[in-house]
Amino acid sequence: MPGVFEVRQGMPIRHAIEDIEVLAECSLEGEWEGQVRYLPL
Length: 41
Description:
It is a single chain. The chain has 1 helix and 2 strands; from the N terminus they run E-H-E. The chain is α+β, with helices and mostly antiparallel strands and 41 residues long. The protein is flat.
């Protein structure tokens, strides 16, 4: 499993996208593999 990020219901889409962009830019390849994380962190 490559990793899953779940966004809480009611979180503004703009904030979710910004958080995911930061995670993508600051993470190492494979860092989230096999994990489920909930946003906001």
